[in-house]
């Protein structure tokens, strides 16, 4: 079994590790841009490369995303908008097309073409405050400098490859990313988890024993005496996730705070399956299988609804988040209108679209909620509209004809338009 695992992991490293040529091309382009930024910034701030590139944990992708941070001097404390405005002036002077993205502190996206790569790289430039200690941070991104320094001090080439495996595994299992539509592990969280357990396979084996009923608490720098002290000191919002991993650079922060129980369980189940039957398929991104949904619908004598949803949004991560909210809204509304949803899933496409598959059954009876019986005029109109009326908790209800899916979408048509989402059926 061990030799099989080693063979699989060796094969994966070769597949996911960018070539020296790719890394050199990316570094040449990004270093050149950093130099230009620093020339323009002068004494107002200093730009540096963060994220996976500078930590040497980058995994091969069709499009590389690179993080830049600009540390503004303390004179910009409590002046987030001024920081972003100043950075925008500098980027404009570089004569490169960019987007300003609104957030808790506005940041910037720009694409840089590199001849050696198939597609342009996306560079995200984030303004941060230069601070001496993590506790001085006004925004989570202010800690980025400390995160980079901590990880780099603990990495060698072998451990960097182990982190690549952790990232690739989680990406394939849809557990990678702290965004609201994933609520999984951030890149930094996966780096820390792999460093803590010393290898990918040790992390996976440990995770295969986890369960959602017992909170996982990790304090690798031993800031606290024990688990009880951690749970007693952190506020409730930071303890709501299934894993509490104390940030080694700032003891009041939980690195895994964004992790949902649903994503946690998906990750743990994938780890259990890999440990019991290791295979390279765990590193392959699984697409939604239409035939699988058709078989499930047929087996359960149910209907299958296939929807294509599209949103006009320039920022991919925001588009994905909005489409995920739409998916949840759709499921919630179907249930509210008495449809029995047996199985549902969605998949984001990098053209700001989503595929949505829903297996459902229409209700045998549709119950319509009416007015309280004391509102006589409204009660009278309700009785005139519906034949089979009954009283529950001093309120009128009625049995009505079940909706078809077409009637359902007619009812919620205005709500869909308000979300600025275009849908079609396939």
Describe this structure in words.
- The chain is of the alpha+beta class and 426 residues long.
- The protein is 42% helix and 23% strand.
- The chain has helices at residues 2-16, 20-41, 51-55, 80-93, 144-154, 157-172, 187-197, 200-207, 227-233, 261-276, 290-299, 316-336, 376-385, 405-411, 413-418; strands at 45-49, 65-72, 98-101, 107-112, 121-129, 216-218, 243-247, 250-254, 303-311, 340-349, 353-361, 366-372, 388-392, 395-400, 421-425.
- The strands form 4 sheets. A 5-stranded mixed beta sheet has the order 1-2-5-4-3.
- Strand 6, helix 9 (227-233) and strand 7 form a beta-alpha-beta unit.
- The longest helix has 22 residues, at 20-41.
């Amino acid at each position: 079994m061990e030799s099989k695992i080693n063979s699989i992991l060796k094969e994966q490293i070769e597949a996911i590790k960018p070539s020296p040529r790719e890394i050199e091309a990316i570094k040449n382009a990004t270093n050149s841009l950093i130099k230009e930024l620093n020339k323009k910034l002068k004494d107002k701030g200093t730009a540096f490369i963060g994220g996976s590139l500078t930590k040497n944990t980058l995994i091969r992708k069709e499009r590389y995303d690179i993080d830049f941070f600009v540390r503004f001097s303390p004179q910009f404390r409590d002046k987030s908008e001024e920081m972003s405005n100043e950075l925008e002036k500098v980027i404009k002077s570089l004569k490169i097309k960019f987007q300003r993205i609104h957030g808790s502190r506005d940041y910037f996206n720009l694409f840089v073409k590199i001849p050696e790569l198939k597609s342009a790289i996306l560079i995200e430039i984030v303004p941060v405050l230069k601070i001496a200690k993590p506790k001085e941070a006004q925004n989570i991104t202010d800690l980025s400098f400390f995160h980079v320094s901590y990880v780099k001090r603990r990495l060698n080439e072998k451990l960097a490859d182990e982190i690549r495996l952790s990232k690739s595994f989680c990406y394939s299992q849809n557990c990678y990313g702290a965004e609201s539509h994933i609520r999984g592990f951030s890149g930094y969280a996966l780096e820390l988890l792999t460093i803590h357990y010393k290898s990918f396979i040790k992390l996976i084996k440990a995770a295969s024993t986890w369960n959602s009923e017992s909170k996982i608490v990790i304090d690798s720098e031993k800031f606290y005496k024990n688990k009880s002290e951690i749970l007693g000191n952190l506020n409730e919002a930071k303890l709501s996730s299934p894993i509490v991993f104390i940030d080694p650079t700032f003891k009041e922060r939980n690195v895994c705070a964004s992790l949902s129980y649903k994503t946690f369980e998906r990750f743990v189940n994938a780890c259990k399956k890999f440990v019991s039957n290791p295979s390279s398929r765990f590193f392959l991104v699984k697409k939604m299988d239409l035939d699988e949904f058709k078989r499930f619908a047929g087996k359960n004598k149910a209907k299958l609804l296939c929807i294509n949803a599209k949103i006009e949004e320039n920022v991919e991560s925001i588009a994905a988040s909005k489409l995920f909210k739409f998916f949840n809204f759709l499921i919630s509304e179907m249930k509210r209108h008495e449809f029995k949803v047996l199985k549902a899933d969605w998949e984001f496409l990098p053209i700001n679209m989503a595929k949505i598959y829903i297996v459902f059954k229409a209700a045998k009876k549709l119950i319509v909620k009416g007015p309280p019986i004391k509102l006589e005029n409204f009660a009278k109109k309700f009785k005139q509209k519906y034949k089979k009326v009954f009283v529950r908790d001093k309120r009128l209800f009625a049995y009505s004809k079940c909706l078809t899916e077409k009637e359902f979408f007619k009812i919620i048509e205005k709500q869909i338009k308000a979300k600025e989402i275009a849908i079609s059926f396939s």
